[in-house]
Amino acid sequence: MTTAAPVGLLPSAIVLQSIVACPLKDREPLAAKLGKFEKKLFPSSEAFDYGVELKKKNIGIILAFKEGTQELVGYLVYQRQKSLAWLHKLATIEQERRKGIAKSLVGFLCQQMKKGGCRTIVLWVDEARSPARALYASCGFQQIERLTDYYGPGRTALKLELNVAEC
Ligand SMILES: CC(C)(COP(=O)(O)OP(=O)(O)OC[C@H]1O[C@@H](n2cnc3c(N)ncnc32)[C@H](O)[C@@H]1OP(=O)(O)O)[C@@H](O)C(=O)NCCC(=O)NCCS
């Protein structure tokens, strides 16, 4: 199922598309597109296998495109578990950063979760990822846990939580 973002939530010239239970025919091209995108932005150890992820029923993806094009400029991956949603991944291409794209992706997820009866969004973030931490703070996430060596030696993880009622 795909849905579009409501007007008023987006930076200009960006269109969001939400995909839940990705149809079989769309899985392969979408997995290829996301895989290519991730290679540029994340270390290979953090790359998802979207061929596997897109088969899962509770995985959702929100894509950000330049309006009128198929140019992917950002995306967010989450997993719904009853009243909780895990935000697994979020990224914006380098040339389009600081234009509000990631914030609009999180805002859209929050609105969708609110409508669907979800109460909380949680995530783990590497303490060293300052832009991501600043983004999540600007969206209202609060730190609830800190684990040293979570991502490997010397790499600390922070668990953050957002109350959906507040977005
Ligand atoms: C983190 C990331 C997703 C932010 O994307 P973005 O589209 O540039 O973020 P936005 O423009 O929506 O930023 C919204 C707010 O977050 C904060 N923020 C975002 N990037 C920031 C940065 N580099 N430095 C300081 N604050 C930042 C600011 O408060 C910003 O608002 P402002 O621009 O009005 O000051 C992007 O930098 C990225 O893809 N990084 C690599 C992947 C990553 O770390 N993902 C997160 C972990 S999975």
Automatic annotation (TrEMBL):
Keyword entries, A-Z: Acyltransferase, Transferase
Protein name: Acyl-CoA N-acyltransferase
UniProt-listed InterPro entries: Acyl_CoA_acyltransferase, GNAT_dom
Pfam families xref list: Acetyltransf_1
Source species: Paraphaeosphaeria sporulosa
CDD domains cross-referenced by the UniProt entry: NAT_SF (cd04301)
SUPFAM superfamilies per UniProt: Acyl-CoA N-acyltransferases (Nat)
Gene3D superfamilies, alphabetized: 3.40.630.30
Domain N-acetyltransferase residues, every copy: 19-165
Any one Gene Ontology molecular-function term assigned to this protein's record: acyltransferase activity, transferring groups other than amino-acyl groups
